[in-house]
Write a structure and sequence with these properties.
524 residues, alpha/beta, Rossmann fold, 3 domains, six-stranded parallel sheet, globular
Length: 524
C-alpha cells in the first residue's frame, strides 16, 4: 500500500480496506476523522450512536498497522461472535477472557506474539493478570481501543471498577500506543470523566450526532396486564420481524414470555437466572433468526450486533436515558426503519427506586456508594421526565445528550408525542391492520401466480438464501449480509460480480464467498 511520507498508512489505504473487507465505498459521518487521528498516532474520544459503525474505527486501522490491536470490552459473552464477524470480513481476530479454558490461554498468547492476529478482544479484568501483562510487554501494540468507554465513569449508568485499571495498564507498556475511547452514549460530564480517567493525551474528540432518524419513538403509560395484550397485538401485526422485549425483573421476563407463547407468539426468555447453556441457546436462536422475539432483562445487553432488529419494546422503566437509548438503539442497526416503544406504569418507578436502594456496592467506599446512588436517582429523574413527556421525545433525548435540536423545529413528526399516537388508537389500528394484512396476503398470493418480479417476494427469497448459507457456516444470518444490503440488491438487481460489488455492504471477501449464490438467486 502507498504510505504517507512518514511511513504511516494514508486515508486512501483506509478506504481500500473499508471496500475490501466491509463492502463500503465511503466512511460514515465521524468515522473518517477518528481513523485519520489514530493513524496519525493521536488519542481519540469518539461518541457515536449505536449502529454508526464504532467498531470499524479500530478494525480498519488494525488491518493497516503492524502488530496486535487490543480492544478492551466488557462484552465477554459476545467476544466469540465478534471474532466470527471479523473472520467473515477477512480480518484475523482473537479474544482473551475467562471463557477460555486454562490450557488454551497460553496457545492464544503464543499465536498472538507470532503474528497470527490483527485484533484481540480483552475483558478489563484481564489487564491486572500478571500473565497477560507479561504478554503485553512483549507484544507490538499499535492501538488500545476501549469499547463502551462510559463504563469508566461513576457518572455513567454502567460503571465498571475494572475499567479504572486501563490507564495504568497503558502506561505500563514499553511504548505507549494511541488510546481510542469509544461509546454510544455519554453526556458532557461523562465525556470529561472518560478523558481524565483513561489519561487521554490531548485527544481528538469526535461527537457524532445522536439522532437515529430511522428509529420511531413512543412512550405510553400502561398497566402490566394491558401491556401483555398490547405487545402480543403488536408482534402479531409484524409477522417475520425480529424484536427484543425488555422487562425489569427475571420473574416478569418469564411471565411475559409465557403470556406471549399462550397467544401464539414464539418467544424465548433470557435473563441472568437461567443456566449458561439455556442463555447461550436463547442468544443463538435469536441471532440465527430461529426465534424472532426475545424477552429479556438487561442481562441481554451491550454490544448486541444483530442488525435486523425491527422493534425494541421496554415493558418498564430503565434506570436512565443513557440505558434506554442504548436498549432502544439495538433496533435498526442496518439503517432500515424500526420502532422503539416504552410501556411504563407508576409501579415501575417504585421498582427502579428499589434497584437503586439495593445497588451492589462491592469495591466502593461509603462515600463513593452515596455518590453513585445520588447520581442514579438524578438519572432516573431524567428517565421519568422522558416517559411522561407530552412534547417531542426525539428532541428530549437529543437535548439530554447536548445536541442542538433547532433543526427539528417544533417536533420530529416521528414519535408518539408529535403524531398523537395513543395505546387505545394503536389497539384499534392493530385490529384493522390484522384484517388488512389478511386481505393483502390473499391479494399477494393471487398476484404472485402471474408475477415473479415483486420486490417483497425477492427480498424474502434472498433472506431464505442468506439463512441457508449462514447455517452452512454456523453463523447468524446478519453476518452474511444485513437486511439493508439485501434490499439494495433488490433495488439494483445486479447481474454480474462487478455489479454486485457495487452494492453497499458487499466487499471483495464476501463477494468471493457468497457472490455466486446470490447472483444465481437474483437471476432466477
Amino acid at each position: 500500500m502507498e504510505a504517507a511520507q512518514d511511513g504511516r498508512p494514508t486515508m486512501d489505504d483506509a478506504r481500500a480496506v473499508l471496500a475490501q473487507h466491509f463492502g463500503y465505498q465511503a466512511f460514515r459521518p465521524g468515522q473518517e476523522r477518528v481513523i485519520e487521528a489514530v493513524l496519525q498516532g493521536r488519542d481519540v474520544l469518539a461518541v457515536m450512536p449505536t449502529g454508526s459503525g464504532k467498531s470499524v474505527c479500530y478494525q480498519v486501522p488494525a488491518v493497516l498497522l503492524d502488530g496486535l490491536t487490543i480492544v478492551v470490552s466488557p462484552l465477554v459473552s459476545l467476544m466469540a461472535d465478534q471474532v466470527r464477524a471479523l473472520k467473515e470480513a477477512g480480518i484475523r481476530g482473537s479474544f482473551f477472557n475467562s471463557t477460555l479454558k486454562p490450557h488454551v490461554r497460553p496457545e492464544v498468547l503464543r499465536r498472538a506474539l507470532a503474528g497470527w492476529y490483527d485484533i484481540m478482544y480483552v475483558a478489563p479484568e484481564r489487564l491486572s493478570d500478571p500473565v497477560f501483562c507479561e504478554f503485553a510487554a512483549q507484544a507490538r501494540i499499535p492501538i488500545v481501543a476501549v469499547d463502551e468507554a462510559h463504563c469508566v465513569s461513576q457518572w455513567g449508568q454502567d460503571f465498571r471498577p475494572a475499567y479504572q485499571q486501563i490507564a495504568a495498564f497503558v502506561e505500563s507498556l514499553p511504548v505507549r500506543p494511541p488510546v481510542m475511547a469509544l461509546t454510544a452514549t455519554a453526556t458532557g460530564r461523562v465525556r470529561s470523566d472518560i478523558s481524565g480517567l483513561l489519561a487521554l493525551r490531548n485527544p481528538v474528540v469526535q461527537v457524532s450526532g445522536f439522532d437515529r432518524p430511522n428509529l420511531r419513538f413512543a412512550s405510553f403509560e400502561l398497566q402490566p396486564k394491558r401491556r401483555e395484550q398490547w405487545v402480543a397485538g403488536y408482534i402479531r401485526q409484524h409477522p417475520g420481524d425480529a424484536g427484543i422485549v425488555y422487562a425489569q425483573t427475571r420473574k416478569k421476563v418469564e411471565q411475559l414470555a409465557d403470556k406471549l407463547r399462550e397467544q401464539g407468539v414464539a418467544a424465548l426468555a433470557y435473563h441472568a437466572g437461567m443456566s449458561d447453556d439455556d442463555r447461550t441457546e436463547a442468544q443463538r436462536a435469536f441471532a440465527h433468526d430461529d426465534c424472532l422475539v426475545l424477552v429479556a432483562t438487561t442481562a441481554f445487553g451491550m454490544g448486541i450486533d444483530k442488525s435486523n432488529v425491527r422493534f425494541v419494546i421496554n415493558c418498564g422503566l430503565p434506570l436512565s436515558l443513557e440505558e434506554y437509548y442504548q436498549e432502544a438503539g439495538r433496533a435498526g442497526r442496518d439503517g432500515e426503519p424500526a420502532d422503539c416503544y416504552l410501556l411504563w406504569s407508576k409501579g415501575d418507578i417504585r421498582t427502579c427506586h428499589f434497584f437503586i436502594d439495593n445497588i451492589d456496592a462491592e469495591g466502593l467506599s461509603p462515600e463513593e456508594r452515596e455518590r453513585v446512588v445520588a447520581n442514579k436517582e438524578r438519572l432516573l429523574g431524567e428517565m421519568i421526565g422522558y416517559a411522561m413527556s407530552e412534547t417531542c421525545l426525539r428532541r428530549r433525548i437529543l437535548r439530554y445528550f447536548g445536541q442542538d435540536v433547532s433543526a427539528l423545529g417544533d417536533g420530529c413528526g416521528r414519535c408518539s408525542a408529535c403524531d398523537g399516537e395513543t395505546p387505545e388508537r394503536y389497539l384499534r389500528q392493530q385490529r384493522r391492520a390484522s384484517a388488512a394484512v389478511e386481505r393483502v396476503r390473499a391479494a399477494r398470493a393471487l398476484r404472485d401466480e402471474v408475477s415473479h418480479d415483486d420486490d417483497d417476494q425477492l427480498f424474502e427469497r434472498l433472506r431464505v438464501l442468506r439463512k441457508q448459507l449462514a447455517e452452512q457456516q454456523g453463523l447468524p444470518p446478519y453476518m452474511v449480509f444485513s437486511d439493508a444490503t439485501l434490499r439494495a440488491m433488490v433495488r439494483r438487481r445486479p447481474q454480474t460480480a462487478e455489479e454486485l460489488l457495487q452494492v453497499s455492504g458487499v466487499g471483495q471477501v464476501k463477494l468471493e464467498r457468497y457472490g455466486k449464490a446470490f447472483l444465481r438467486e437474483l437471476e432466477a
